[in-house]
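Sequence only, no structure available. Ideas?
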Amino acid sequence: MSIIIFSKPIHSGKTTALMHWCKTQQSCSGILMPDVDRIRKMYDVRNQSYFDAECKSPLSTEEKLIDIGKYHFYQSSFDKANQIIEEAILLKPEFIVIDEVGMLEINQKGFHTSVKKLMDISDTNSFDTTIILAVRDVFMAEVVAYFKIPNYRTVDSLTEL
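Reply:
I predicted one. Tokens follow.
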């Protein structure tokens, strides 16, 4: 298995680039978080389907939310996303993509459980899936240190894959 960290600054097109790249792959699973009509959604790469991630009315919902900066995300969306990633681990596609890994995960929220599980199995010879993690450039060192990511390669363009 190899680990690739796709790292660029905030709002530099990481998600858009990953969306286009994933659509060209035969065996790709994972989760992307694009903006659709100015609202964050989650995109199931394998099933090519969207589901809500961002809550625009946090005071009028009963659902549990995860707050980061100006964003309010549904906990249930991350639960579903982690389940999709864990199913992908069992399917062993050529690529598993997680967009993005940062402060939520370092604080044991968001995609934390999935990233942790992937790093735990990264040393096994029986798992030959390539893991692609989108990480903002300013969080690179923290993410790598927190998850103890072994033998990774950093790219700032998907044409390098």
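The chain has a mean pLDDT of 94.
Hope that gets you unstuck.
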